[in-house]
Design goal:
The chain is mainly alpha-helical. It has six helices and three strands. Strand 2 and strand 3 form a beta hairpin. The relative contact order is 0.07.
């Protein structure tokens, strides 16, 4: 249950909330401790091993923040929003800046390609010698760029 709560959480507060929802009683003193519903005494996380120390739990939660959970059937805008907010929520300003530069370049390249394709298509339609097959070939060639 501890692993499941860690895996599905991105913050320490969320982790504690999920442990409470699973029925565990929580004690935060010098060491973090849990007690299952039918358990007599609290179990300190330090007794579970180094993998379950409070520092280790915090490191594991930190890793979860970088794995933004994006629904598989989500639209491009939703995926982009989740990715962007995960950078901002993590106070990862340099990561967000890098992502935004890369995304802006991609969007600018797409816009430029559409403008160029429009001008080429317009020029081809104006020439008398262009056939429908010739125009289709040029468009498919441009689309593959």
């Amino acid at each position: 249950n501890v692993d499941r709560a860690i895996w599905s959480s991105v913050s320490f507060d969320e982790f504690l909330m999920k442990m409470k929802e699973a029925g565990y009683e929580i004690r935060q003193g010098k060491y973090l401790a849990f007690r299952a519903p039918n358990q007599k005494h609290f179990t300190n996380v330090k007794t579970l091993g180094a993998y379950y120390s409070e520092d280790s739990i915090l490191r594991r939660l930190e890793k979860n923040r970088h794995k933004a959970r994006i629904p598989q059937n989500a639209s491009f805008k939703v995926r982009m929003f989740v990715q962007m907010t995960s950078y901002v929520a993590d106070d990862n300003r340099s990561g967000f800046d890098q992502w935004s530069r890369k995304n802006n370049l991609k969007e600018a390249a797409k816009a430029f390609l559409h403008v160029v394709m429009w001008f080429v298509l317009r020029r081809m339609l104006r020439t008398k010698h262009s056939t429908a097959n010739n125009i289709r070939q040029n468009i498919s060639c441009m689309m593959s760029l």
